Amino acid sequence: LRFVAGFELDSPQARFGGLSDLHVFEDGRILAISDAGEWLLADIQFDPASGLPTSILNARMALMRDEAGEPFPDKESGDAEDLAIMPDGRVAVSFEQTQTIRIYDLFGAGPMAPAQAGPPLAGTLRLNRNRGLEALMLVGDALVVGAELGRRAGPLPIWWVPIHAVEAAPPVSTIRTAPGFALTAWDYDPSRGQVVAVQRFFAPGIGARIRVMAGASPEGRQALRLEELALIAAPALVDNVEGVSTQPLPEGGSRLFLISDDNFSEEQKTLLYVFDWPAAD
């Protein structure tokens, strides 16, 4: 990966923080979610000469809603972790702790509209309650969901579920992470046919380490096999990266956006990093 830009995001608003995933549209709009059940919208400003991102503008927030159109009463019920943009422009969001998927017509009906129940998943009772449906992406006409950690060591389950499914889909594939690392996000780059995933390590006295991984999207019940693109660790400034968004570049290759979750802590930072992943020679 080639470093492009880095931002530390901050706000005097106490509600700001906890950003667990993002999607960056081709026009520079950012849609992010927080694990306290909120939307964040903002715009990236680009230098007209170089095309490089220079600042973040027009940030605004809104409460996410449940199926009754009510804000989530607590973090446990509104623990939004990852998002995917559906073919019709609606937004699918995975929630850990409740281990559910909800669908939002955010750009049509607006943020006040109630959520719709997304496709159900079977086998989620085996998941660690606070380390559940952490990764979500759209591949073709299916939502692909990955767990952060299971209850026991071993490969993590992956669900491939059609976006209009009504019957609970069981996990059909797996992914392995390096020892000490957990899956926190992924996105699919259709221009390359590649999955880009983020794996996070943290230990007291050592701090955070982030692996950015990539691999071809598997078919059927094959395990997802990824190779390391980058390891971000000290002395680089690194924090709890939980979101990734990919975007094809006009000249080929991809641009990756990574965002960190500060856990609403003054000791952590909300970092937005931008990398370019050049096309293969």
Q: Can you put this structure into words, describing what you see?
A:
- The chain has a 4-stranded antiparallel beta sheet, with no helix packed on it. Strands 2-3-4-5 form a 4-stranded antiparallel beta sheet, with no helix packed on it.
- It has strands spanning 2-9, 19-24, 29-34, 38-46, 53-63, 80-85, 91-95, 100-104, 116-117, 133-139, 142-147, 156-162, 173-175, 182-189, 194-203, 207-216, 227-232, 241-248, 254-260, 270-277.
- Helix content is 0%, strand content 49%.
- It is globular.
- A hairpin with a 4-residue loop joins strand 14 (182-189) and strand 15.
- It is mainly β and 281 residues long.
Can you give me a brief rundown of this structure?
The protein has 281 residues and is an all-beta fold. The protein has strands at residues 2-9, 19-24, 29-34, 38-46, 53-63, 80-85, 91-95, 100-104, 116-117, 133-139, 142-147, 156-162, 173-175, 182-189, 194-203, 207-216, 227-232, 241-248, 254-260, 270-277.
